[in-house]
Structures are given as structure tokens and as C-alpha cells.
Write a structure and sequence with these properties.
alpha+beta; 2 helices; 21% helix; 22% strand; binds adenosine monophosphate
Length: 114
């Protein structure tokens, strides 16, 4: 999508701080980190919200989680622990309408989230 920030990153028009990439997934550091490790894992195809996922995306969503698992291991938070979050729509706090998996770690996390 022409006006989507994350599609521009996939297209190379905006250069994020990339930590992982394969043919289906891109992962980069969040510009406003909420923890010592804060990475966003996105699909290379445009999907606006989790509500738009269909069964054909099953493998793609699995790839996103496997990318997060690898990033957590590479960044040294796999054993201490980390959190993965996907916000869906306004009430959950979604601000970029291209799905993304937040990967947060490097500090203790509280529950419930705010
Ligand atoms: P959400 O509020 O769940 O939609 O998350 C969107 C995330 O994108 C926020 O954590 C932002 O800090 C992050 N973000 C926005 N613009 C950029 C950017 N140019 N590079 C990296 N992360 C960004």
C-alpha cells in the first residue's frame, strides 16, 4: 500500500534498523522502545489488522513467531523471558495499520498491561 509506513520499509523507501529478514518477514527495532529490547516483526505483504487474517495466512503468522523466537535468542532474552503483543484496532492501541508483532524484553514485565 502506497501510504503505509511499514510497506515503505519493505520496499526500501524507509530504512529501519533491521535485525532479521527473510522472504516473508521483516523485523526491525521500534523507534520508540518500551523495553531494552523492542523489535517489531512484520509480514512483507500488507495486512491491516489481525481481523483481516485468513486461513491462508496461517504459515505466515507462524513465520512471524519463529522470527520473534530467533530474535529473542539472538538478543539474549529467551531464557529470562520476553513478551509478544499484537495490538488490534484503536482500543488496543494500534497506531500503524500493517500488522506487527511487538517483541519486548530485557526488563521485568507486569500484568495486566495498561
Ligand atoms: P502499535 O501502536 O501497536 O500500532 O505499534 C506501532 C509501533 O510502531 C509503535 O511502537 C511505534 O513506536 C512504532 N513505529 C512507528 N514509526 C516507526 C518507525 N519509523 N520505525 C520504527 N518503529 C516505528
Amino acid at each position: 500500500m502506497a501510504d503505509c509506513l511499514f510497506c515503505k520499509m519493505v520496499a526500501g523507501e524507509i530504512k529501519p534498523d533491521v535485525v532479521f529478514e527473510d522472504d516473508e518477514v521483516l523485523a526491525f527495532r521500534d523507534v520508540n522502545p518500551q523495553a531494552p529490547l523492542h523489535v517489531l516483526v512484520i509480514p512483507k505483504i500488507h495486512i491491516s489488522t489481525v481481523n483481516d487474517l485468513t486461513p491462508e495466512h496461517t504459515s505466515l503468522v507462524g513465520r512471524m513467531y519463529l522470527a520473534a523466537q530467533k530474535i529473542a535468542a539472538d538478543e539474549g532474552v529467551a531464557e529470562p523471558g520476553y513478551r509478544m503483543v499484537m495490538n488490534c484496532n484503536a482500543e488496543a492501541g494500534q497506531s500503524v495499520y500493517h500488522i506487527h508483532l511487538h517483541v519486548l524484553g530485557g526488563r521485568p514485565m507486569s500484568w495486566p498491561p495498561g
